[in-house]
Write a structure and sequence with these properties.
heterodimer; A: 126 residues; mainly beta; 4-stranded antiparallel β-sheet; 11 strands; 0% helix; B: 11 strands; 50% strand
């Protein structure tokens, strides 16, 4: 079964750093893009950025560039979303999701998000 | 950036109704569009991809159509389980979600 399992909920203070994770299983982790999506309380879905674990190619939505960093560890099939200095406005649920793929035979760069991780609630409050 | 605009933002309907949600792209995205369903506190679930392809396991009362800049999601006969928020998403160039349509019980 293809699965993405995210790390647990976090409660942090403004200015603190944080890294949340998303571990893939049941498929070739290095061949598929992993996206991160933010959902602020009571709001819609926002695509934040994406990484291709095979070569760590990373792209950010402009509004998130410089605010977060996305990385991946091929050895543990895990993608990460990281903040160096959290703000109260970072309070949200963060989802990872699998999207396009690239193999030696074929590449589909953009695709629907499926599956999704279960979400990680990040609460930033003094 | 490709912008996605859904309408309506809220839709009130009854069990058994046929409902349609519209999604417009700010530029042509061919058929690179997906629809998701999200219930409160739950993970989004893909219903339709490539504008009109039903995801495996999704009931046939859901259907998608359109290409270019205009797309629709139709639920042919609402069931109680369908009351949720629906999002469109373009994947022609990176990714953008619509703002969501909340489908409420009338």
């Amino acid at each position: 079964e293809v699965q993405l399992v995210q790390s647990g909920a976090e409660v942090k203070k403004p200015g603190e750093s944080l890294r949340i994770s998303c571990q893939g299983s049941g498929y070739s982790f290095t061949n598929y893009w992993i996206a991160w999506v933010r959902q602020m309380p009571g709001k819609g879905l926002e695509w934040m950025g994406i990484i291709f674990p095979g070569d760590s190619a990373t792209y950010y939505r402009p509004s998130f560039q410089g605010q977060v960093s996305i990385s991946a560890d091929k050895s543990t099939s895990t993608a990460y979303l990281q903040w160096t200095s959290l703000k109260a406005s970072d309070t949200a649920t963060y989802y990872c999701a699998r999207s396009g793929y690239c193999t030696r035979i074929n590449c589909v760069t953009y695709s629907r998000f499926d599956p999704w991780g279960q979400g990680t609630l990040v609460t930033v409050s003094s | 950036d490709i912008q996605m605009t859904q309408s309506p933002s809220t839709l009130s309907a009854s069990v058994g109704d046929r409902v349609t949600i519209t999604c417009r792209a700010s530029q042509s995205i061919s058929s690179w569009l997906a629809w998701y369903q999200q219930k409160p506190g739950k993970v989004p679930k893909v219903l339709i991809y490539d504008a009109s392809t039903l995801e495996s396991g999704v009931p046939s009362r859901f259907s998608g159509s359109g290409s270019g800049t205009e797309f629709t999601l139709t639920i042919s006969s609402l069931r109680p389980d369908d009351f949720a928020t629906y999002y469109c998403q373009q994947y022609k160039s990176f990714y953008t979600f619509g703002q969501g349509t909340k489908l409420e019980i009338k």
